Amino acid sequence: MYPFLKQTYGPHSSLSYCSLLLNHCLTKKSLNFVKIVHAHFLKLGLNTYTYLGNRCLDLYSEFGHINDALKVFDDISHKNSTSWNICLKGLLKSGQLGKACNVYDTMPIRDVVTWNSMISGYASSGYFSHALELFVEMQGTGVRPSGFTFSILMSHVSRPSHAKQIHCRMITSGVDLDNVVLGNSLITMYGKLGLVEYSFVVIMTMKQFDVISWNSLIWACHRAGYHGLALEQFYHMRATKLLPDQFTCSVLISVCSNLQDLDKGKQVFAFCFKMGFVYNSIVSSAAIDLFSKCNRLEDSVQLFKEQDQWDSALCNSMISSYARHDLGENALQLFVLTLRKNIGLTEYMVSSLLSSVSTFLPVEVGNQIHCLVPKLGFESDAVVANSLVDMYAKFGFIDDALNIFNEIKIKDLVSWNTIMMGLTYHGRVSLTMDLFRELLTREGMLPDRITLKAVLLACNYGLLVDEGIEILSSMEMEFGVKPGEEHYACVVEMLSKAGKIEEAINIMETMPYRTTSDIWRSILSACASYGDLQIIEAVANKIMEMESHTCLPYMVLAQACEMRGRWETMVRMRKAVENRGTKEFIGHSWIGIKNNVYTFASNQLQHYGGKDLYMLLNLLAWEMETKGYV
């Protein structure tokens, strides 16, 4: 097959010719050819040469055959720093952090490449605190960090305090801060953490900047929710005579999507036509998302159909658009079509479909997608795992959700939020509180608004009054999260359920938000059992002022008067309800049977298999009564 390999070469054959063979391996991207060349080296005794061994070692590492690479490493007679570094990189690339640590410990000399590899390995595996410790240790040994060292740290940093420390260390280490690449990395780092003001400080101190600099700043504003500010930066960018690229346009369209500003989005899209970016898949997928979020799904479908060639980005946007508009069947059909066309499936695509399944499709479809996840190699992806946890929790299989959560190797905050919210809604209050404590102590992560909402909901459902009050009062000071309306609502409802009506009203009157009728409703419901008539009347009047057409306050007042024997007032309240001509709200249920979802209203007597369904429901109700659930 390779006739030029049939010649016999002595041990003093030209190293340059052997190197040419190895270059040919890389060009052909053929693992078999690498093995053939390596076999000839073994035959001729060239496998012990440092240079050739390093090249073979590098090639096996590139192809992901780490065991073959380790054999080559062992054969090298005189290992230099390059040999050790390639071996270390190969182990880290294959995910064998433990073995990489053993190699690192036995290395005779550690240069900046060695330290960069280990810092990157720890950070990529989710051990950022270890990466920082290694970074400090590196400087203690006298090895000066390079710009690449800081780039690694900036791409993985997750805390504002760490970001500022890294930036400070860059200044004190004498790194060239005029380097455009490092400046762009700083802008992106601060933008990822929501520290937009620091991103502006960085770009203002940069002596020169490029399109990527502006893209990073626009993206930073967009990521932090300052969408208007992001558009302003685009105008400033145009004033500098720099031409935007496809990434600029895609971010701008995403900005318009979040603003749900269709007019501005169309202007940006027209600009894309002018620049020739309209058939770029990243720009088109952003436009599909824009039309979908602005309730113009037909335009999204039309734009998708006009594309000459589909790719992962386009299919991602279209599947999520269908899911957003409650068209789970369409999302599933497009997913199947994507499979048939051999378009590379992405984690985001699977995640979008799982979100659609948990709301609109039977659990069997979710199980099938779950079976597909390991085949696609996505089982270790946090986004897909989080979607699986959410799907099983919404279907009521909370134990399955918990098992998947426990199997996630590197859990991000979304993972913790998803399982804690699922456990809370399933009444696993104590387990939710245990996970919250584990998150703070063992993982060392700071909770966000969603985490604290899940915990306060657990306190509400479990009537853990003291814990709930303590968390609400300390969340801004301890976690840096200002209590929102949803947090106050949880605590108010918790106090109301516990019969502490006056405390609940005090929190309502002192919270820095405009009170809503929903929060007053939670107090009113509790007042019917615990409150005196004056409080009930005061709360009912509040709701009447906010919702003049609602009948709830009149109904609660009628019930309270009936309990206290005030018959005239009771009759008057019931008359008020009748005069309002309230319309009965009819509940609907969805049942999945043989991959079909049937919807029926609670006032229907006849529907698919109606008699059998009602018999089954009666049996379930009887079983619940016998077990004391009702």
TrEMBL record:
Gene3D superfamilies: Tetratricopeptide repeat domain. GO terms for biological process: RNA modification. The keyword Cell wall biogenesis/degradation does not apply. The keyword Repeat applies. It comes from the Eukaryota. One of its GO terms (molecular function) is RNA binding. PPR repeats lie at residues 111-145, 210-244, 381-415. Keywords: Repeat. PANTHER family: PENTACOTRIPEPTIDE-REPEAT REGION OF PRORP DOMAIN-CONTAINING PROTEIN, PENTATRICOPEPTIDE REPEAT-CONTAINING PROTEIN. This is Pentatricopeptide repeat-containing protein. It comes from Psophocarpus tetragonolobus. The lineage of its organism: Eukaryota, Viridiplantae, Streptophyta, Embryophyta, Tracheophyta.
